[in-house]
From TrEMBL:
Reactions the enzyme catalyzes: S-ubiquitinyl-[E2 ubiquitin-conjugating enzyme]-L-cysteine + [acceptor protein]-L-lysine = [E2 ubiquitin-conjugating enzyme]-L-cysteine + N(6)-ubiquitinyl-[acceptor protein]-L-lysine
MF term (GO), any: zinc ion binding
Protein name stated in the entry: RING-type E3 ubiquitin transferase
Region of interest: Disordered: 260-283
Gene Ontology CC annotation, any one: membrane
Location in the cell: Membrane
Domain E3 Ubiquitin ligase MUL1-like positions: 87-236
Top EC class, one word: transferase
Chief place where the protein resides: membrane
UniProt topology in membrane: Multi-pass membrane protein
Length: 435
């Protein structure tokens, strides 16, 4: 039984989506359970009242501020986190001989200064916000600087298969004054400074959305993941069940065939026992005849092997009874000697008929139809058609005729009209060594 990899893949995808949905749902439940502060000044009292053993995960909101903000070089914006990237754009000569556009990062710099959230009642410093989930930096500026073209630079680029277009410089910043919600572990040092950092276990978010919006989005994604997992699981189970049903029906058909084969073998042995053909003679082979009979007549022992599959399931008379052989071409026909003889006679008659001849020699396009009508009169019931039977057979006969003609044109070969064979002088035969 072949493994239905499509169904297995759908089931594995369903399991992965289910785990993602479960993780999102778990994060949403954790966010619902975190402590919320109405104002930052209340956070100090909450920390003093909290247990010293377990970490305190809270959600705070405020505006981004810093005593020493960074200033962007391109846009002049003030921020607490600044990322600068320089990306080289160029055309690359590929193997097909055309130019394709590509890019490569030349420079990536990230800067961050100590910053805090301020709601007018207090301050809470944020540590390690770059690794927090949901943090999106604002694009402050994008500048494209075209590369200068000189003769030396152009020659070097041509030798390397490159055409420099320019450099794209991008600045991303977390501006001061941005409203931000941070979910993390709150700690208080010896001097009374309160910080929010990544907890050892638990969520760590820094997003412009409120805590309620974060919970709503996580719950929505959890539902979508679970619905998608249910769809993939249903489709995967359908594919697995379909393959299992096909395998069951195949085994059932095989069992039914074996039952019929055993019944046919039993009937044959019963007839042979009545006729006395096997009385008094040990015949162990016929005792094992259950699976060795022809699948067509269910009577004779099989003795024909089909090439190239190697199946041995038919009796020779059944294998040769059909005049149409299925092969690489469609409706191949096995011609008999009588049919070939009548075909040649019909061809000679058509060659003398002015309806099918053209001036200067040759035949009209419809001459094979004349041959078909003559063969239908002389060989009724054989079903020989002009196309593809007559056309295909004439091609074979022409190929053999020209092969014999080339042989007779060579010295030492002659035609024996009585036996219809090509004769060759003994000294003309050249034996070539086998490789």
């Amino acid at each position: 039984m072949m493994i239905p990899w499509g169904g297995v893949g759908c089931c594995l995808s369903a399991a992965a989506l289910y785990l993602l949905g479960r993780s999102s749902g778990r994060d949403a439940e954790v966010l619902r359970s975190v402590a919320r502060t109405g104002s930052l000044k209340d956070l100090a009292a909450i920390l003093d009242a909290a247990s010293k053993v377990l970490p305190l995960v809270v959600a705070v909101s405020g505006r981004v501020s810093s005593d020493t903000p960074l200033v962007c070089q391109q846009s002049g914006m003030r921020g607490v986190i600044v990322e600068e990237t320089a990306e080289q754009h160029f055309l690359k000569h590929n193997d097909a001989g055309s130019w394709i556009q590509d890019s490569a990062v030349m420079l990536s710099v990230s800067k961050e200064v100590p910053w805090y959230l301020d709601d007018g009642t207090g301050r809470v410093y944020v540590v390690g916000a770059r690794s927090a989930a949901g943090l999106v930096l604002t694009v402050a500026s994008e500048v494209f600087e075209e590369s200068g073209r000189t003769l030396v630079r152009g020659t070097l680029d041509y030798l390397q298969g490159l055409k420099m277009l320019g450099v794209k410089r991008t600045e991303r910043v977390l501006p001061t004054g941005t409203s931000l919600t941070v979910v993390g572990e709150a700690i208080k040092d010896d001097v009374g400074t309160i910080r929010i950092q990544r907890p050892h276990k638990g969520p760590f978010y820094a997003s412009p959305k409120s805590i309620d919006q974060l919970i709503l989005n996580l719950g929505k994604w959890a539902k979508l993941y679970k619905l998608a997992s249910m769809g993939f699981a249903a489709f995967g189970v359908f594919l697995l069940a379909k393959r299992a049903l096909e395998h069951f029906l195949q085994k059932k058909r095989q069992h039914e065939f074996h039952r019929k084969a055993r019944a046919a073998a039993a009937q044959r042995q019963a007839r042979e026992a009545e006729d006395g053909t096997s009385a008094g003679e040990p015949n162990s082979k016929k005792d094992q005849l259950v699976l060795e009979i022809c699948v067509i007549c269910l009577e004779q022992e099989y003795n024909a092997v089909f090439v190239p599959c190697g199946h041995m399931c038919c009796w020779m008379d059944h294998a040769e009874s059909s005049t149409i052989v299925r092969g690489r071409g469609r409706n191949k026909r096995k011609w008999t000697w009588d049919e070939d003889e009548e075909l040649v006679k019909a061809l000679c008659e058509v060659s003398l008929d002015p309806r099918f001849r053209v001036q200067g020699g040759g035949f009209k396009n419809c001459y094979t139809q004349g041959i078909e009508s003559l063969l239908a009169q002389r060989l009724p019931g054989h079903g020989i058609k002009a196309s593809p039977h007559v056309d295909s057979r004439l091609k074979v006969l022409k190929r053999k005729f020209y092969s014999i003609k080339d042989m007779l044109a060579s010295p030492g070969f002659s035609w024996d009209g009585s036996k219809k064979v090509v004769r060759c002088e003994k000294e003309r035969i050249i034996l070539e060594p086998r490789v």
